[in-house]
Amino acid sequence: MVDTLQWLALEVKYLDRAQSFYEAFLELDVVRETESETILDTGGTELILRTPSGVPRGGLHTHYACLIPREEYDSWYSRLDDRFDLVEETFGDSKSLYFYDTEGNCVELGQSDVAGPGVDGIFEVVFEVEDLASAASFYERLGFETVDTGQDRKRVRMSSGSFDIELWEPHLGLADARGGVHVDVGIGTTDPAATAQRVSDDALATEAIDAGYRIRDPDGHYISLLEL
After folding, report:
1. How many CA atoms does the CB half-sphere of 208 hold within 13 Å?
2. Alpha-carbon gap, residue 186 to 56, rounded angstroms
3. pLDDT at position 178, please?
4. What is the residue range of 92's domain?
5. 12, 39, 141, 199: which has the highest count of C-beta atoms within 10 A?
C-alpha cells in the first residue's frame, strides 16, 4: 500500500528566482543542488524545483498544501499579508491561507498540530484529470481511499493515511487554484513492485528505477513508488 509522500517536483523557468522565493517566504532550507534542480526540505518531504530539462518535468500550476503549527498561523499570516494578496479559508477548527509562487503554483499553509517550527510537511497535492471516475479507480487500486467528493463532482479527495491527493476536473478551486499538470511525486511503499503491478494495465508507462518503480498515470502524471 502507498504510505508517505517523499517528494513533490515543480517545474520552474528560473531556478534562482524560485529558490529565493521559497527560502525567503517559506523559510525552507536547501538540501542539495544540481544545474537543473534545487531540492528543499519541507520537514520530511522534499520540494524539488526543476528546470524544463527532461522528463519527468515537474508539475505546472500545481496546488499543494503544507502543514504549519497551529500557534504559528497568525504570525505567518501577518508576515505574508504584507507581500501577497492572501486568501483565507476555514475548515472546522483550522484555517488555511493561500498565495502564489513565482511560477503560478498555489501554495497553501494549513494550520495543524504539527511540532514545527515552520513548514512541517506537505499534506496535499492536487492533480488535474480528464475523467474523475476513471482517475479515482486508478488511484484506489494504487492504494488510496476516497474520503470526500465535491457536490458538483468536479473533485475527489483521496488519502493514503498520511497525506492526501485531490483529483480535479479542470476548474478554478479555492483561491482560483488549478490542479497540476504533469505532476511528479515520489511515494513510499513497502512493496513497489506489487503496487505498480496493480495499475500496470492502465498506466501509460511503467519502469524500474533505482529505488523502486515509476509509473505514468492515464493523465500523464508521474508517480515514483519508492521502497520504505
Report:
1. 4
2. 11
3. 97
4. 2-209+217-222
5. 12
Torsion angles phi and psi, residue 176, rounded to 5: 60, 30
Residue 228 has pLDDT above 90, yes or no: no
Number of domains in the chain: 1
Q: Identify the DSSP state of 193.
A: H
pTM over 0.85? The answer is yes
CATH number, domain with residue 156: 3.10.180.10
| Residue carrying C-alpha cell 517545474 | 11
Q: Is the dihedral of CA 53, 57, 62, 68 positive or negative?
A: negative
Of 40, 20, 42, 21, which is closest to residue 30 (Cα–Cα)?
A: 40
pLDDT at position 163 over 90: yes
Grid coordinates representing 135? 482517475
Question: Quick check: 30 and 38 in contact, CB under 8 A?
Answer: yes
Question: Which of 161, 170, 162, 108 has the alpha carbon at shortest distance from 135?
Answer: 170
Cα dihedral angle (6, 136, 56, 181), rounded to 10 degrees? -110
φ, ψ for residue 194 (rounded to 5)?
A: -65, -35
Q: Are strands 155-159 and 106-112 parallel, antiparallel or unpaired?
A: unpaired
- Three-class secondary structure of residue 199 per DSSP: helix
